[in-house]
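Sample intake — M67 family metallopeptidase
Collected from: Tunturiibacter empetritectus
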Amino acid sequence: MLRIHYADYEALRAHGEETYPNECCGVLLGKNIAGEGDGAPVNSAAAVNYVQQIVRAGNTRTDSAHNRYHIAPQELVKIQRQARGLGLDIVGFYHSHPDHPAQWSKTDFAEAHWLGCSYIITSVEQGKAILTNSFLLSGTGEDDKNFEDQAIQIDIAPNVAEAAALNQKGQA
């Protein structure tokens, strides 16, 4: 499952509308929590990617930004350092599909390498965000990686105590 605060969910959808007709992209920071007491690995469907911050990234694809995205390695390293400074991890990525469904493409799958991460896709039709789906990249490596449909839980109000507990758990 992917847990995200309503404001962050709406912000990533708005990002897709702002960059239309090109794809937007960004990074999800938070904690990857294994299923409570079930022994599930963090890259399984029983795990929860708890998003605590989203970071917009630049789409560096100049040849086909309308149907592809790329985050420059330098920017990704900078975002990863920012996450570590906050006691967070990269738990996923998001991008938009202008005038296409909120479903992963063959290119999305081929370019997905962060096992255990959520990949959010928002369909933006005629400049308006329509549908947002999330997919968990599971497996043990490139040879057996797989996208699994992932439920999205949108939290209306931030649970400050729970976020603090997650940060404590992540630092242990």
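Post-analysis note: The radius of gyration is 15 Å.
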